[in-house]
Design a protein that fits this description.
By secondary structure, the chain is mostly beta strands. About 5% of the residues lie in helices and about 40% in strands.
Length: about 160
């Protein structure tokens, strides 16, 4: 079974087009993923989403956003300008997961002043400082257990 899960960064915004026969939406975008070795350049891949996933890509994904994508990987043969053929990987999207804390953060928020300011009647107004978040402590993860019981109960009288 061909199933891939990749953590990627969007390098080209999704573009949407429609099929001629029944106007099914198709979205395409370019993504980059980190190489396994330090001395290797990052990989680049075309991602294709169909139907409702195409609409989600168009509405939710921006350049620079980090995503986890699930789907199928396939190779396409593409003719080059010099007449030779080149093989390129294409990722057909099945699921899309936005990485929390990094999605959609393109601009920083303005700083709040910590001093007092005056309103129109020249009375000082204290601006409350935002509290610093407390570090979250996580509990030890439970050990993974695997159910190795047979799917079909062993009640068959005929041994094969």
């Amino acid at each position: 079974m061909n199933h891939c899960v990749l953590e990627v960064e969007v390098i080209q915004a999704p573009t949407i087009r429609y099929t001629q026969d029944n106007q099914t939406p198709i979205a395409e975008m370019e993504v980059r993923f980190d190489a396994l070795r330090v001395d290797t350049a990052p990989g680049q891949l075309k991602v294709v989403g169909w139907g409702n996933l195409a609409q989600d890509l168009q509405n939710r994904v921006q350049v620079g956003q980090r995503l986890v994508i699930e789907g199928r990987l396939r190779m396409n043969t593409v003719p080059r300008q010099d007449g030779t053929k080149e093989k390129r990987a294409e990722f057909t999207l099945a699921r899309l997961h936005s990485l929390s804390g990094q999605a959609g953060q393109t601009a920083s928020s303005p700083e709040r002043p910590t001093s007092t300011t005056t309103n129109q009647t020249s009375r000082p107004i204290a601006i409350a400082e935002t509290p610093t978040p407390k570090p979250v402590t996580t509990a030890e993860p439970e050990a993974a257990s695997w159910n190795s019981a047979p799917l079909v109960p062993d009640t068959d009288d005929i041994p094969f």
